[in-house]
């Protein structure tokens, strides 16, 4: 793996770990997490727990691309588009245009940060890999 691919893997793993800082409180301590983020506590609270579980499932799908972005290129790209890109866009729009709690911006900014970092690193990794594979090999007679 080249340097960009290694950094893509590291940033993706870090993003998975950061996601767990939302998953664990959402699933096990939803009222505490929502209070910490200054958000309304919905009734029934199961929706917060369900969102936490869905974030866990989404994060699990990032793992193949984090392990080997060349072998699992589709998974690596899907971890950015639609996942991080649409997640950040959705929550920013929800707050700015639909009056949702500002606490949702924490999720949006996490997705935006990791999405931007990952798209840059993965693009550079793939460009570098394509240059390596496109280089003709000299044969000695």
Structure, described:
This protein is elongated. The longest helix has 31 residues, at 104-134. The chain is 78% helix and 0% strand. The chain is mainly α. α1 packs antiparallel against α3. The chain has helices at residues 3-28, 30-36, 46-60, 63-67, 73-98, 104-134. Keywords: Membrane, Transmembrane, Transmembrane helix.
Short description:
The chain crosses the membrane at residues 12-33, 45-63, 75-98, 104-125. With 141 residues, the chain is mainly alpha-helical. It is 78% helix and 0% strand.
- Specify the number of helices: 6
The biggest beta sheet is recorded as:
none
- Described by the principal axes of the CA atoms, the overall outline is elongated
Number of strands: 0
Radius of gyration: 18 Å
* Strand residues, percent: under 5%
In sequence order, what are the helices and strands, one letter per element? HHHHHH
Uncertain ranges: none
Transmembrane segments: 12-33, 45-63, 75-98, 104-125
Keywords: Membrane, Transmembrane, Transmembrane helix
């Amino acid at each position: 793996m080249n340097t960009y691919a290694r950094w893509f893997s590291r940033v993706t793993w870090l993003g998975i770990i950061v996601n767990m800082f939302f998953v664990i409180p959402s699933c096990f301590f939803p009222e505490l997490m929502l209070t910490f983020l200054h958000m309304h506590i919905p009734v029934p609270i199961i929706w917060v727990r369900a969102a936490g579980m869905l974030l866990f499932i989404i994060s699990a799908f990032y793992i193949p691309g984090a392990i080997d972005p060349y072998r699992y290129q589709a998974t690596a790209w899907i971890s950015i588009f639609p996942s991080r890109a649409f997640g950040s866009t959705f929550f920013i729009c929800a707050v700015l245009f639909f009056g949702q709690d500002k606490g949702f911006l924490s999720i949006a900014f996490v997705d935006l940060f990791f999405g931007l970092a990952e798209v840059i690193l993965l693009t550079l990794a793939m460009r570098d890999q394509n240059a390596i594979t496109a280089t003709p090999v000299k044969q000695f007679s």
